[in-house]
Amino acid sequence: MDVGYRGHEIGGPPSNGRGQIILHDRHGSYCGGTEPRTDSLILPW
After folding, report:
1. Where is this region: Disordered (predicted)?
2. Where are the beta strands (DSSP E) in the chain?
3. How far is CA 18 from the centre of its chain?
């Protein structure tokens, strides 16, 4: 739904918050990802 036409201000993504995820799939594999704006990284072992 487009709320801009109702007078709401529409901006870009928020500048705060970060995301990291580790996915464990049904085959037993792991997949990880992190947002490139952070100093995080994925270290497999």
Report:
1. 1-21
2. 20-24, 30-34
3. 7
4-41 pLDDT per residue, tens:
777 777 777 666 667 788 889 999 999 988 887 777 78
- Site of tokens 């709401």: 8
User: What SS3 state is found at 24?
Assistant: strand
Q: How far apart are CA 25 and CA 37, in angstroms?
A: 26
pTM: 0.45
Cβ-based neighbours of 31, under 8 Å, separated by 6 or more: 22, 23, 25
CA distance 45 to 24: 14
Q: Is 34 helix (H, G, I), strand (E, B) or coil?
A: strand
